[in-house]
Amino acid sequence: MKRREFLKEIAGLDKGALQEKANKLAEELMRLRFKQGTKQLEKGHLLKETRRALARVQTAIRAKAA
User: Fold this and answer.
1) Structural contact between residues 45 and 32, judged by C-beta atoms closer than 8 angstroms
2) What pTM was computed for the model?
3) How many Cα atoms occupy the beta-carbon half-sphere of 39 within 13 Å?
4) CB 60 within 8 A of CB 18
5) What mean pLDDT comes out for the span 8-31?
6) Phi, psi of 44 (to 5 degrees)
7) Residues 6+ apart with CB under 8 A from 9
8) At 25, which helix (H) or strand (E)?
9) End-to-end Cα, the chain, rounded Å
10) pLDDT digit string (tens) for 21-61?
11) What is the pLDDT of residue 66?
C-alpha cells in the first residue's frame, strides 16, 4: 500500500480502531522478526515497511489524544 493511501486510511479511524491496527502491526512485526531469525524471511523489506507503518499509526494515536 502506498504511503499516502495508508495515511488517508488511518486519518479516518478513531482511537480504538487505531489501537487495534497498532496491535496487529506489532504482532506482524514480531512474526517477521522470528522468520528473519530462522532464515525463513525471503522479503526483508517487509520488516522496514511494517516498522514504519506501526510508527505512523502510533503517531496518529498520539495526535488524536492531544
Assistant:
1) no
2) 0.90
3) 0
4) yes
5) 95
6) -65, -25
7) 1
8) helix 15-37
9) 27
10) 999 999 999 999 999 999 999 999 999 999 999 999 999 99
11) 79
